[in-house]
Design a protein that fits this description.
This is Glycosyltransferase family 2 protein. It comes from Runella rosea. The structure is a single chain. This protein is an alpha/beta fold. Helix content is about 45%, strand content about 15%. Strands 1, 2, 3, 4, 5, 6, 7 and 8 form an 8-stranded mixed sheet that branches. α1 links the parallel β1 and β2. The chain is globular.
């Protein structure tokens, strides 16, 4: 008997994309699927679009929130209803190819229990569904160019973002042991990666098993906005990583990651959070004059954000153009 896979789709104002996203679950080649949809108090027509699909497929579990409770808490709502052995967190604007779940379950079922996550390559699409490029660059045979970290990847998770989050399938027992997503955070992946990769292994499937939509209001674009809560959440996760790290090498990697977040604080004009990161860094090593200078400049409240927003817009257009020319979102070691 095939194990059940629970797909938890959280939706907020994705009326244009949510039907396509949900149909990509319904049309999987794998049949043992529980689909849970949470509308997080959308203000557009998302709820009506979802309801029409639920009328067609009454087996869908539909949770309607009367107010937006945040991404992490909404996901945990769905996790509380989940009956599957494995779980996928699906954004309401992303799309799964038909064979994704079948391939990931097959991989999971042949792995020992020390593996908590399987993940894959992904293609990026625009609002019209036009393919822009790939997370990892492809060879002519369709496989990734370079070596994708797999197995014990805690140090690599500390070092940088390299996993396309929508591509992951998680072992539910691990999610439950971790207490689900941390509801005090504004975004989920960095925290989940840190906490799970510390004790469990990850397995990479060298196939394109996700289509991630690139939109102007995605979480990645919100990171540098003034007053955004994501820097505070990142600081919380870095504190957890400090407590979890086991070697000087891991502390050194974390220190470099903290320095990157201080740079983000400068751009987001957030001196309080920059000071908090600096204090955490000081527990690991002397921050040094360059970091102290950057924190000092943060405290001057220099109006740099508007300039960076213009630069970021130009950079995003350039990156999309490069992606269409075959340059990947993540550069891998050869």
């Amino acid at each position: 008997m095939n194990p059940i896979v629970t797909v938890i789709c959280t939706c907020y104002n994705h009326e244009l994309f949510v039907r396509e996203s949900l149909l990509s679950v319904i049309q999987q080649t794998y049949s043992a699927i529980q689909l849970i949809v949470i509308d997080n108090a959308s203000t557009d027509e998302s709820r009506r679009v979802i309801q029409r699909l639920v009328d067609e497929y009454p087996e869908i579990v539909f949770i309607r929130n009367t107010h937006n409770i945040g991404l992490c808490r909404a996901f945990n709502q769905g996790l509380g209803e989940a009956t599957g052995k494995y779980v996928i967190d699906l954004a309401a604007d992303d799309v799964m190819p038909p064979n994704r779940i079948e391939m990931q379950v097959q991989a999971f079922e042949n792995l020992p229990k020390e593996y908590a996550v399987v993940f894959s390559n992904a293609a990026y699409i625009d609002s019209s569904g036009v393919k822009l490029g790939y997370h990892y660059a492809l060879r002519a045979n369709g496989h990734a160019k370079g070596q994708v970290p797999t197995g014990d990847i805690y140090k690599e998770i500390l070092r940088r973002y390299f996993i396309c989050t929508p591509s992951i399938m998680m072992r539910k027992s691990v999610l439950m042991k971790l207490g689900g997503y941390d509801e005090n955070l504004s975004y989920e992946d960095f925290d989940f990666f840190i906490r799970s990769a510390h004790d469990y292994k990850y397995h990479y499937i060298d196939e394109v098993l996700m289509y991630k939509r690139v939109l102007d209001d995605s979480l990645a674009t919100q990171f540098y906005r003034i007053g955004n809560p994501m820097l505070r959440s990142s600081w919380e996760v870095c504190n957890k990583a400090y407590d979890l790290s086991r070697s000087q090498e891991e502390y050194d990697i974390l220190a470099n990651r903290i320095r990157e977040f201080i740079k983000k604080c400068f751009v987001a004009e957030d001196p309080e959070q920059a000071l908090a990161f600096r204090k955490l860094l000081n527990y690991i090593e002397d921050p040094g004059w360059k970091t102290d200078l950057l924190v000092f400049l943060c405290r001057l409240h220099l109006p740099v954000n508007w300039l960076y927003q213009r630069y970021a817009k130009w950079r995003n257009h350039r990156n999309l153009a490069l992606m269409q020319q075959g340059v990947p979102f993540v550069q891998l070691e050869r």
